[in-house]
Amino acid sequence: MSAAAVLGWLVLAALAPGAAHLRAGWRKTGLILLGCYAAGLLALLAVRLSTDNLLGDLTQDSWLTGITAGAVVLGVAWFALIVHSFVVLRPGSLPQAGQVLAGTFAGLLAVLVVLPFGMVSSYVWTSRNAINDIFVNDGTPEPQAEGTTTRPEDPWAGRTRVNILLIGGDADDNRIGVRTDSMNVATVDVKSGNTVLVSLPRNLENVRFRPGTPMAQHFPNGFRLPPDPGGGRSDLLNSVWEYADAHPEIFGGKQHQGPKVLMDTIGYTLGLKVDWYALVNMWGFARLIDAIGGVTLTVEQDVVFGRYNEGLVKAGTRKLKGADAMWYARSRTFSDDFTRMRRQRCVIGALLDQADPATVLTRFNRIAGATKELIRTDIPRPMLKHLVPLALQVKNARVTSIQFVPPLISTVSPDWAKIRSITEKAIRDSAGDRPTAATASPESSSAPKSTRSPSSKKQKESDPTKTLTEGCGSL
């Protein structure tokens, strides 16, 4: 057998274990290896066909541990397979130059076949650690439909929507408490994935609390405190979490009530039941953007930042690093909260569009490390298996947004009924209940502009619902 033939059979053995053994006359061993290989492939196919929610199951601790162990075992087995295949092909019968070439190639191939298994093991173990660090694993069971004692086929227990409060926190080592400067509720249709992102301004005043709650009893006429010595206010919506955490006496001595109070307050404001929250550290978010290699944004005009206005994010379309993307999203210099809310929406939309699977895979460990430092949430660990496929639906579904900013509402004296009414309509429209094209948003209607009546145009202009990236990217 020539050196080229040995190399060819080694490559074939790496793809079809047992091929080299059959060629060398080890018939029984070769058939066993090929049989085991075929059985393994059939087992994987059976698992895929029998599992409706494979991606969700892959977030479970038992699966992640099993995959990690399996990848290690298979990596060692494939390494041994290449070495033994080389031995049975009798390379000693080759000329000296052929032996050197075949031996070198066999060594490189043995290492090469181990690499995919090593990468899988590393990625899965990193995922497991990140998931266990982020999500609550307190023994909370999966949701049960009312009146049932067994696990329902519907993981949402009859709910048609899931509402998650997404918070941008401005926590810092030099600051006591958590200041929630960005508050958005993602309300997701569990069947279609269609999502409405509802944004509330940080400076919403006279916030009302759900009747009967300790905060409502303490502030019966709304969240109102005396002005700060410097003239600022500590009774805005972005102070609710911090205030509740700082005053456990309101809750009978219970500590750390901030997240629960803010979820309930925002849910009451919008007329929703908020299921869970996810707090994102804004500067951790910058590390996440760096982990995916930056995000491409169109900066409409120069954005100035810094205590002395020394920082600048220049206008133009380009890929921004994490720090610049965050300053673009957060700066209020020569601007206001409402413009900042729009820029934050643009950054979220750009991330959803640009965090493609290839980018996530190639930068996985960095992304997992950044995410672990980025997120704090009360989402139960068992629910993750259902949220993962739902999140994939959202990426390919219709995402619209509402921003409750002037002139739509007054932040000083908000019309609470109007806020709930607009939210309810946006959710109904997102679910596909709009009766005619005349009431659709501009992005969802395919009718030519010339065929729209003046009343239709006026109706559209008054519709506060927008696509997530509407108003972004215009210089």
Description of the molecule:
With 475 residues, the protein is α+β, with helices and mostly antiparallel strands. It has 2 domains: 3-134, no CATH class; 161-467, LCP protein (Aminopeptidase, 3-Layer(aba) Sandwich). Helix content is 48%, strand content 12%. It contains 17 helices and 11 strands. The chain has helices at residues 3-15, 19-23, 27-50, 54-57, 61-88, 96-134, 214-218, 240-246, 258-270, 282-291, 322-330, 337-354, 357-362, 364-374, 384-395, 416-430, 454-461, and strands spanning 161-169, 180-189, 195-200, 276-281, 295-299, 303-305, 311-313, 316-320, 375-377, 399-403, 466-467. The chain has a 7-stranded mixed β-sheet with strand order 9-4-1-2-3-10-11, sandwiched between helices. It has a two-stranded antiparallel ribbon with strand order 5-8. A hairpin with a 5-residue loop joins strand 2 and strand 3 (195-200). The longest helix has 39 residues, at 96-134. The chain is elongated and about 95 Å long.
